[in-house]
């Protein structure tokens, strides 16, 4: 608190308030920004609470801001080590850059035993090493991973090892009925599911809504999700939140009930062509 009659200064802000604000910043701002402003801000930025949620997904701007000069995996590991040290191991979530691998995940699992969430987009993660890391994450509640890790073995291992697991995001080009069935059977008590920017048939959407009885949040928004029918919306009405915006709903795509295929208007299926010809003939007869 500034003395009476004097203009308040930023460095006079309550430390807990500063920590609350700084906890919303990225690692690049904590290291290369606020910590250089003044002694009070530097002290607040050192608080472990500022380092509980670590997001490295935008690695290029982070590395430029911090003037990283070496190979990305090397600089990333040093920065990760520094951030975990500042958090004193009490990290809640880590969102890895796209080049991070199973060794990075295992490193975090060994040093952050109370980790609740991670995002790892790499599509070349060995399942055995992934499961080895999962073994160390007893309190894991959610993850975002590539479709290559969506298998019965991996998901059942998560179910056995992580009693609190309830949130899944999958990075995939297509979620077919097989993958949908695997998710439903291995993780039947999911509460939050995200399948963004991938192909999903109406059958798979219905399957997930029917089988995941505890689901509360379902996000299938993306550029190539087929139009949502009234039946799907009725099934999704029990959810707290359902996100499904797509180009289908903006008129770029449509769904053909004749051959049960999703189609481009610019490149219609045979059913659509037959329909268009029939309509033209009827109009000009």
From TrEMBL:
Recorded coiled-coil stretches: none
Domain of life: Eukaryota
InterPro entries on file: F-box-like_dom_sf, F-box_dom, LRR_dom_sf
Pfam families linked to this entry: F-box-like (PF12937)
Membrane spanning stretches: none
Annotated ranges, domain F-box: 16-57
Protein name, as recorded: F-box/LRR-repeat protein At3g48880
């Amino acid at each position: 608190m500034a003395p009476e009659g004097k203009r308040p200064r930023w460095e006079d802000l309550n430390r807990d308030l500063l920590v609350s604000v700084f906890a919303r910043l990225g690692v690049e701002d904590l290291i290369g920004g606020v910590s250089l402003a003044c002694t009070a801000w530097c002290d607040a930025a050192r608080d472990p609470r500022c380092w509980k949620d670590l997001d490295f997904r935008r690695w290029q701007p982070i590395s430029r801001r911090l003037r990283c000069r070496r190979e990305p995996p090397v600089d990333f590991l040093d920065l990760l080590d520094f951030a975990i040290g500042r958090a004193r191991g009490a990290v809640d979530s880590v969102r890895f850059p796209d080049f991070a691998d199973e060794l990075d995940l295992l490193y975090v699992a060994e040093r952050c035993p109370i980790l609740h969430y991670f995002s790892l987009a790499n599509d070349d993660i060995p399942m055995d090493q992934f499961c080895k890391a999962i073994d160390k994450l007893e309190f894991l509640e959610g993850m975002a991973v590539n479709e290559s890790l969506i298998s019965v073995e991996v998901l059942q291992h998560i179910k056995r090892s992580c009693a609190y697991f309830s949130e899944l995001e999958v990075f995939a080009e297509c979620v077919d009925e097989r993958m949908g069935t695997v998710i439903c059977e291995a993780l039947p008590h999911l509460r939050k599911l995200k399948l963004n920017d991938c192909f999903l048939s109406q059958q798979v959407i219905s399957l997930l809504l029917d089988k995941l009885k505890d689901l509360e949040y379902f996000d299938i928004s993306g550029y190539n999700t087929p139009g949502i029918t009234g039946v799907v919306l009725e099934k999704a009405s029990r959810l707290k939140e359902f996100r499904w915006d797509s180009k289908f709903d903006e008129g770029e795509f449509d769904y053909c009930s004749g051959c049960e295929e999703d189609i481009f208007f610019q490149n219609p299926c045979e059913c659509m062509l037959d329909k268009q010809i029939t309509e033209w003939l009827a109009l000009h007869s």
